[in-house]
Design a protein that fits this description.
This protein is mainly α. The radius of gyration is 18 Å and the shape is globular.
């Protein structure tokens, strides 16, 4: 029987520790692996993440529970999960930089404060943590193992493309009557957006928080003295 999910409970901490351990082991393996295995490990992590999203869609479609107003892959984490295998396979340096910020600022927050109703051992529990944890593991693995140095150009690209995404998803919400990425209203459950006031001010507050988190994610690279070798092309 499925249990209700409770944040900061044993099942929550266990999931966080499990994916922390998986990420650590993958990075250690990647550091000593030769090509093509080094790149394949990252692709496997991204592929598992992608597959979890596809499997969820299939399960809901076959069960007749797929809802166009909430289940389309329009949330930012869903888009990252869809893009990630193709970005890594194409060795796209520009989007690796963007996804570094999006994954660690957004997806990591989703891991720490999950919007999840069903707990262990439900399908929703595993799907949620496999997708979000897999994104962080794949991006973290790629940045560390391939020694990619994140730059201020990556920082700016992440902000610019986030604004493009926000405008596009708000237009989609108006057309569908949906609330992807909560541009129309705050989530029903408690969230960090509650600290930023009513619509539309909480969107501005979230934007400022995003920039602050992005700046924090720049710290490891601004403090480094010796830049890494990078991955693939360096155009931004």
């Amino acid at each position: 029987m499925d249990t209700a999910f409770i944040s900061f409970s044993l099942q929550h901490y266990s999931a966080l520790m499990a994916f922390g351990g998986i990420t650590f082991v993958a990075i250690q393996m990647g550091r000593v692996a030769a090509e093509p295995l080094k790149t394949q490990i990252g692709l496997i992590l991204a592929g598992v993440t992608f597959s979890s999203l596809v499997i969820e869609a299939i399960v809901k479609l076959t069960g007749g529970t797929y809802d166009l107003l909430s289940d389309l892959p329009f949330f930012l984490c869903d888009l990252v999960a869809l893009m990630l295998p193709f970005v890594l396979f194409a060795d796209n340096r520009k989007w690796i930089g963007i996804l570094y910020f999006w994954a660690l600022a957004g997806t990591l927050q989703a891991m720490i404060t999950p919007e999840l109703s069903y707990g262990f051992p439900s399908f929703h529990f595993f799907r949620y943590f496999i997708m979000h944890g897999g994104i962080i593991a794949a991006v973290g693995y790629t940045i560390v193992v391939h020694r990619i140095r994140i730059t201020w150009n990556d920082f700016l690209n992440a902000i610019i493309y986030a604004q493009i995404y926000l405008v596009m998803i708000h237009m989609i919400n108006h057309l569908l009557g949906s609330n992807y990425s909560y541009t129309m209203a705050k989530p029903v459950s408690a969230s960090i957006l509650d600290f930023f006031g009513p619509w539309p001010w909480y969107i501005l507050g979230a934007e400022l928080l995003m920039i602050l988190l992005f700046l924090m994610l720049m710290l490891p690279f601004t403090l480094r003295q010796n830049p890494g070798s990078g991955l693939g092309r360096e155009e931004l």
